[in-house]
Amino acid sequence: MILAKKELKQYVCQDCGAVYPKWQGKCDACGEWNTIVEEVVGGGGFSNFNPRKSKGKEIEFVPLSGAEEQLDRLSTGIGELDRVCGGGLVAGSVILVGGDPGIGKSTLLLQACAKVADLPTRPEVYYISGEEAIGQVRIRARRLGLEKTPVNLASSTEIKDIIATLEKSNAAMVIIDSIQTMYLDEVDSTPGSVTQVRACSYELIKLAKRKGFTLFLVGHVTKQGEIAGPRVLEHMVDTVLYFEGERGHHFRILRAVKNRYGATDEIGVFEMQDKGLVEVANPSALFLAERQGNISGSCVFAGVEGSRPVLVEIQALVSPTGYSSPKRAVVGWDSNRLAMVLAVLEARCGMNLSSQDVYLNIAGGLRISEPAADLAVALAVISSLTNKPLPADMVIFGEIGLSGEIRAVAQPSLRLKEAKKLGFHSAIIPQGRSTDKKFSVDMDLHEIGNVQRLINLFN
Ligand code: TYD
Ligand code: MG
Predict the structure, then answer these.
(1) How far apart are CA 251 and CA 279, in angstroms?
(2) Counting atoms of ligand 1 from 1, which one is nearest the CA of 103?
(3) What pTM, to 2 d.p., does this model score?
(4) pLDDT over 90 for what percent of the chain?
(5) How much is the pLDDT for 68?
(6) Cα 25 to Cα 33, 35, 37, 95, distances in angstroms
(7) Residue to mutate, 270, 272, 275, 278, ligand 1, most ligand atoms under 8 Å from C-beta
(8) 139 C-alpha to center of ligand 1: Å?
(9) C-alpha of residue 262 to centroid of ligand 1, in Å
(10) Is the pLDDT of residue 217 over 60?
């Protein structure tokens, strides 16, 4: 057919992949602006590939069992960072570090660079800043006391120059701070645009895989909490880490949301001090440090983040509303989950919360996503409503179902052991767990099967 020879143009959103016959400023599918780019395709909208004419090479199949690839891991000397990366940096892997501006991404990576560069084997470490001038990075290095470490520092935004330089090096670790400032000549759009970010990342990732260095890409986060630029960036890299924390708190949490070389949901906890980020080996003790016992509306949730138990204080305040519809405000937890817990308490326990404002806060600036916190939230709310404090030496965990049943959660003994270590003597836990053979914790366990029984605890 003649049509097959004709070149066809189509307009593709670089963010979500939606295809349009004409250019337009805004993508109707994902709502992004200026992401639609012209692409030339073969006739009829398909590629020119013809499987009968073009001969491909045969690929070889192998059995599932076989010699395991030994991963070469490099320790950064920052234990919390190593753990989140799955136990050190894998050679040739690419790690995207996202986070709000000013949260400490540059500080963390500069500290990691300095540690690695100082190793006895003297790995070559390159820190390329597109955001700050050399002088600014030097000021930070001096502040951190790292100015003597053999880190190679440069300020550049030209991907071509960066690649040409790294090509000749023997790099073990490279930091690009940030990917949104990088620029590739061949691509005709501004730095930070979807196309630029994608093209620059692609070139850098190719080089990292070929030369076998660990590449860190710093990425900014949009107001919605996503790494700015295309979502495809998250698919291109091996590991995605988010650096998060509340403004006004010193704690910073490094969280793995994707990891091809380790577990996700692993967290690393740091404290931002005036001489940089300091690892927090025992986060529970830190999160509970300012807790005041015997206050109504407060309780301690025994949570698990990744492989590590973390105890946090959950605070609720219930007060008569002055509005026509009561206010619900949540810091550090999912507001839909709070709405669900309140609805269950109303429907199954006959509590009246419709004329009450409810405020919920996870003390210390940690964000919890575990449903296991349901029971602790419910107890904090009831405690505030009845104005009766819970015992100060008690921890709580359990998930609440819509019919009011309390469900078992993962790793109960890990949670209880941590609680015991920190001096807690009793716990409220889901029913049917203490018969578990693994339970050998010497604590006063109150098992609860249904939310209706919660009210009795306060009588
Ligand atoms: P920075 O690493 O520049 O953040 P990002 O790269 O994520 O934008 O961190 C900047 C903040 O950290 C800044 O507000 C000052 C604070 N800070 C300290 O409190 N102590 C320190 O030692 C350093 C270097 C920064
Ligand atoms: Mg920075």
Answers:
(1) 10
(2) 7
(3) 0.80
(4) 54
(5) 74
(6) 6, 8, 10, 32
(7) 272
(8) 11
(9) 28
(10) yes
